[in-house]
Structure formats: structure tokens, C-alpha cells
Design brief:
heterodimer; A: alpha+beta; 60s Ribosomal Protein L30, Chain: A; five-stranded mixed β-sheet; globular; B: alpha+beta; Chemotaxis protein chec; 6 helices; 47% helix; 28% strand
Chain lengths: 160, 197
């Protein structure tokens, strides 16, 4: 079967299995979390906008918008693919401060912290991360290998 | 929000942008045009795609607006336009600038400041409302990363955003930018009331 490259929009997540790739473009202060099971080769990728759904009154139809709800939603979907929680490993990318000047809300930092907190509560280890800084990042999860490719401006590539 | 209100909003922004494009024309000595602005509700994902591909290299300048109608003005220029603006505004031969140093960053920041300032002062003259620009913020990076972060930083995170947007630039599109204006529905009510009286 030919591998598909499945795009994930802002505030969305998707789950797929080998041999497909999941890609989300241009993470700034948003955080991308990939979760992967090396045994079943099932992977999920989420493009998180904001840390905490409890701070917002407005309803959202975007299941991947918040770290505190989106990560558990994605893991629930992965469980239906037959993965075991104990086998899952996470990688985290993004959470940059894109603009110069004073960053009052530190959204990038808070997205990282909340995602860490939620993952650790569920018992999933973040095995590698490329977070913070001030650069936009594209994130690609390859479900064949579990490798995450990070693409910066000018096609600079880093694999984690 | 009904069609008449959206029309009024579009027309108001059109007048504001007329002043902004005149300011840019005076600064650059070039003929600057604006397209008729569009005012609509759209999902954030779609808003981010207006300016082009999410990985396109752009400069994104945010100008928070305070006063009677708090909001956010964003100007976005592609890399080519950004470098050309720096060359033209610092009197360098076209093609000199190929990356942004501190000096060229401040030129771009100030360009955004002047454009946003003329936009809101025109609306202020029209309505009698008081509006002020805050310190501009600049990022030069991927379009998706900059625009999305700009909206989140300024708390425009609803699934549907009210957005006024247009293209501003030269007729031959050597310099081409995007303009966005965001505010809340409550603030728009205030703007409509001021337009009516």
C-alpha cells in the first residue's frame, strides 16, 4: 500500500497506522504532539492551539484545540486501533515565541507545560522534544519508523 | 451581523485603507493600490490560508489597537516585498536586502506602524471614536506560524473569526501585502453606532 501524507489543520488531530505519514504545517506558539506505538506502528499527531479548555466559555467543534482535552481524545482514538498505553511514546515540537517584544501571555510556554502535565498524568513519556525558541516549525510523523521530521524556513530539516 | 452592517464595515475599512495606501505611496514614491476589502466570518484555518501557503516566508507585523474600539491590525508582506520595501525606504538599489537585520526590522516595524496609524486615524475622523496604536510586533517566518500565533497572542481564538482582509500593493505586484483587521462583535456594535450618528 502506498503511504499517504495526511494533513492536520490547526486545532485538529488524526490517528493512522503504518505506512502513512501525518503532517502539520507551520507550528508557531502552537504545540505539535506525536504519540506512537512502535509495536503496532500506530501514530497520532495533534496541533494544539491553547493549553486549557476550562478557561474558555465558548464551545468548540475542534477536538484538538486544547492540550487538556485534545491529547486524551487522541489517545482514546489510538486505543481503538489496538495500541497499549504502556507502549506509547510521545514527541513534542513547537511552542515558540514568534514575535519580538514582551510576550505577556507566554502561550507557547504554557502549551508546552500543559501538554507535559497531561501526558505525564496519563503515563506517557516524552522521549524527545524540540520546543521553545522563536522559529516556526513543520512537523511530520512517519508511522513506519516513528521518526519525526522537523522542517524550518528555507527547508532546513532536523530528524528527532 | 447582517449584510448592511458588513457593508458598512467594509466601506469604513475601505476609507481607512485608502489613507494607509496613500501613506505607503508617499513613503515609497510608488503607486499603491488596494483591493476592495472583504468582511466575513471564517474559520481560523481558512483565515491563515488567505495569505498563501502556510510555509511561505513572510514578515508579519501586529499592531494592537486600544481606545474605543480595541482590536488588532496585521500587515503581512511576502519575503520579496519585505526586502524591496527595505531597499526602497532606505534608498538602496533594489535587490540589495536579502535578509533582515535589526535596522531593516525597525524599518518594517515602522512601516506597519504608519500604515496602521493612518488606517485608524481615518476611522477616528469618520466616527469621532478615539483609537490608538500600541508598539508594533514583528516576526519574519512561516506564514502559518506567524499569523496563527499573532491571533492567539491577542486572544482571537474562536472557531469562527470576524475578519476584514484585503490585498495592498503596487499594480504590478512588486510590493504586495495583506491587511487584516480583527475586533470583537461588541466593539463592532460601537463602531456601527458611531457611524450612524
Amino acid at each position: 500500500m502506498a503511504a499517504l501524507e495526511i494533513p492536520i489543520g490547526i486545532a485538529e488531530y488524526k490517528v493512522t497506522r503504518e505506512p502513512n505519514r501525518l503532517i502539520t504545517l507551520g507550528l508557531g506558539s502552537c504545540v505539535g504532539v506525536s504519540i506512537y506505538d512502535p509495536f503496532t506502528r500506530v501514530g497520532g499527531l495533534i496541533h494544539i492551539m491553547l493549553p486549557d479548555s476550562t478557561l474558555f466559555e465558548n464551545q468548540t467543534s475542534k477536538t484538538g484545540k486544547f492540550a487538556d482535552t485534545g491529547i486524551p481524545f487522541m489517545i482514546r482514538d489510538m486505543l481503538s486501533y489496538g495500541v497499549k498505553i504502556n507502549n506509547l511514546e510521545a514527541k513534542m515540537v513547537g511552542g515558540a515565541q514568534m514575535f519580538d517584544g514582551v510576550d505577556h501571555f507566554k502561550i507557547g510556554q504554557r502549551n508546552i507545560e500543559k501538554s507535559d502535565q497531561i501526558l505525564s498524568r496519563i503515563g506517557i513519556k516524552v522521549i524527545v522534544r524540540e520546543t521553545g525558541g522563536n522559529k516556526g516549525r513543520t512537523m511530520i510523523l512517519d508511522t513506519v519508523t516513528g521518526q519525526v521530521t522537523i522542517r524550518l524556513l528555507g527547508n532546513q530539516i532536523k530528524i528527532i | 451581523m447582517d449584510g448592511i452592517q458588513l457593508d458598512a464595515l467594509r466601506e469604513t475599512c475601505n476609507i481607512g485603507l485608502g489613507h494607509a495606501s496613500t501613506a505607503l505611496a508617499v513613503m515609497t514614491g510608488r503607486k499603491i493600490d488596494i483591493d476592495v476589502p472583504r468582511a466575513s466570518f471564517m474559520p481560523l484555518d481558512e483565515a491563515v490560508h488567505i495569505g498563501g501557503e502556510p510555509e511561505k516566508e513572510v514578515s508579519c507585523i501586529n499592531m494592537p489597537i486600544t481606545g474605543d474600539i480595541p482590536g488588532l491590525v496585521i500587515f503581512m508582506f511576502d519575503a520579496h516585498s519585505t526586502f524591496l520595501l527595505v531597499d526602497v525606504l532606505s534608498g538602496l538599489p533594489e535587490g540589495t536586502t536579502a535578509e533582515l537585520d535589526e535596522m531593516s526590522k525597525s524599518i518594517i516595524r515602522e512601516t506597519g506602524n504608519i500604515l496602521a496609524g493612518s488606517f485608524i486615524s481615518a476611522i477616528g475622523d469618520l466616527t469621532g471614536l478615539k483609537m490608538y496604536t500600541e508598539v508594533p510586533e514583528l516576526a519574519f517566518d512561516m506564514l502559518g506560524a506567524t499569523l496563527c500565533s499573532a491571533l492567539i497572542n491577542h486572544n482571537y481564538t474562536d472557531d469562527q473569526l470576524l475578519l476584514i482582509e484585503t490585498v495592498i500593493g503596487e499594480l504590478d505586484k512588486q510590493i504586495k501585502g495583506f491587511f487584516f483587521f480583527m475586533t470583537s462583535p461588541e466593539n463592532l456594535e460601537k463602531l456601527f453606532k458611531a457611524l450612524l450618528f
